[in-house]
Design a protein that fits this description.
heterodimer; A: alpha/beta; Rossmann fold; four-stranded antiparallel β-sheet; B: 269 residues; mainly alpha; two-stranded antiparallel ribbon; 10 helices; 2 strands
Chain lengths: 240, 269
């Protein structure tokens, strides 16, 4: 079996103030082509897991390996380029959509690369938008457009793993479909080296995007063979 | 040639102090209810200044290094405490960071001013050390407190931006840079503004004091120029130190943004 892209063993998190366990020792391996879905009630630790995997919050124990290698302190920025966390509420910066897309290339981690308009425009077109979207002011974007920009900004950097933390929870059906389409396009283009972890509350979305299923409850992650019965999608309005 | 110094008599002081009645009259006329506060403020002005006058007279008379050092330390402690007192956001250790920034920058620049520019001898001459450190502390305290206030608020308000940058592969320094620029700018603005209008709109304290004490304007201006640059350097250094100390507290070596360490202060009544 090939080396997992991301392999975590017994990582745990505690609240730095109260000491309460936020994430019980958790192990997980993500192989190329896997699209894992994490479901569970609010406050159960889904975001804690995602932020831990992105090394956004300090973990209190356990080990993380990327492509078989432990992640050294100095390599955290480079790791985050490969294991990209997509937050529910993206941070946008003053200027246009294009200014925001160019922003990563001002960082040391991407200094060898340049903004490639030719790579971005087809992604935009895949969501039914023209290149004129690039000139739109970031402050005028709707919630769906802001999430689209956030996703484009990450996808142009060609990450290996996407950690999608409820990216569509505040979006309407059309905008959600757009996000899913973009992720799916990214995954199709690099089937041998891409994996995703989705957090969602929507069983229909879980079914559409996932091929592995997990449930998080009280800080414990448990893999399920499929979507649990309670989470199954209601059948579409079709006559029996 | 020095102009004669006109000594103020107690009746003259009483005449000036009576001007507080104008503020009192305004308060009564507009029903502002500030009479009590005005009376207390007037009383404090007189008592505090008379007291510090007595202390300084004694310090100047004994001229002992340990007495001067004790006074300078007390002034620094009070300024350091005041520097961390403002702002809607705080964090554990903010008082210490404010104190360190105020202390290190003020003492370094004051020492430079006293020994390399004014050349005082002996090094603890109270007549120079106390007022110069005092004026530098006052301005550094403003810079440090504005810098701390701005950086903590910027980090909370821009949390999504800071985390987005980290997610895009920014180092902790790259993620901190934008809020830091805003905070240092805020901390240095009062000094830059003061330097821009000095002598045109305002005649600052040092110069006014020296002229009133009988010095020629030219001599007074030389001191004022030295003081302005000392203030600018100390204030800038203090602001940058405070912002860098926040950086060390709120960003871990693993490039994590420890935003939970920032707490909104409970509103005071």
């Amino acid at each position: 079996m090939s080396v997992a892209i991301l392999s975590v063993t017994n990582i745990e998190r505690r609240d730095p103030v109260s000491g309460a366990v936020l994430l019980h020792p958790t192990s997980l391996q993500l192989q190329a082509g896997e699209h894992a879905v994490v479901m569970g009630p609010s406050g159960s630790g889904k975001s804690v897991l995602m932020r831990s995997l992105a090394l956004l919050d300090p973990i209190d124990g356990g080990e993380m390996r990327f492509l078989g290698e432990p992640v050294a302190t100095d390599d955290v920025p480079a790791y985050r380029c490969r294991v990209a966390y997509i937050a529910q509420q993206p941070g946008l910066f003053a200027g246009t959509v294009e200014d925001n897309l160019r922003l990563p290339f001002t960082l040391r981690a991407h200094r060898q690369r340049r903004f490639d308009r030719g790579a971005v425009v087809p992604m935009l077109e895949a969501t039914g938008r023209s290149a004129s979207f690039l000139g739109k002011a970031a402050r005028d974007l709707s919630g769906g457009e802001a999430e689209l920009l956030n996703l484009l900004r990450v996808l142009q950097l060609d990450p290996s793993i996407l950690l999608l933390d409820e990216p569509t929870s505040a979006l309407d059906a059309a905008a959600s479909a757009m996000v899913e389409a973009l992720v799916s396009r990214w995954a199709r283009r690099k089937p041998a080296e891409a994996a995703a972890l989705w957090v969602t509350h929507d069983p229909a979305q879980a079914r559409r995007v996932g091929n592995r299923f997990f449930r998080m409850d009280g800080g414990r992650l448990e893999e399920r063979a499929g979507l649990p019965a309670a989470a199954r999608v209601k059948a579409p309005e079709v006559a029996p | 040639m020095n102009a004669p110094y006109l000594e103020l008599s107690w009746p003259s002081l009483a005449t000036a102090a009576a001007l507080i009645l104008i503020n009192g009259a305004i308060s009564v006329a507009l029903r502002m209810g500030l009479e009590g506060k005005l009376a207390m403020a007037a009383l404090r002005t007189v008592v505090q200044l008379l007291l510090i006058g007595q202390i300084l007279e004694w310090v100047f008379a004994v001229e002992r290094w340990y007495v001067v050092l004790a006074i300078l330390s007390a002034m620094t402690l009070i300024a350091g405490r005041a520097a961390a007192a403002r702002g809607a956001v705080s964090y554990r250790g903010m008082g210490l960071d404010a104190m360190l920034s105020v202390f290190a920058s003020s003492w370094l620049i004051t020492a430079l001013g006293l020994f390399a520019v004014i050349h005082i001898d002996p090094w603890y001459r109270a007549q120079f050390a106390i007022p110069i450190l005092g004026i530098i502390l006052g301005n550094t305290l403003t810079g440090v407190s504005l810098g701390l206030e701005r950086i903590t608020e910027e980090l909370l308000v821009r949390r999504a931006q800071v985390e987005t940058l980290l997610c895009l592969g920014a180092s902790r320094w790259e993620a901190f840079r934008l809020p830091a620029q805003q905070a240092v700018k805020a901390g240095m603005m009062p000094v830059i503004n003061a330097m821009t209008v000095v002598g045109v709109v305002s005649l600052p304290g040092t110069m006014t004091g020296l002229v009133l004490a009988g010095q020629t304007p030219e001599h007074a201006i030389r001191y004022q120029i030295v003081i302005m640059f000392l203030i600018a350097a100390a204030s800038g250094l203090g602001t940058v130190s405070a912002v860098l100390l926040v950086y060390r507290r709120i960003f871990s070596r693993e490039h994590c943004f420890l935003y939970r360490r920032l707490e909104e202060r409970k509103a005071e009544d």
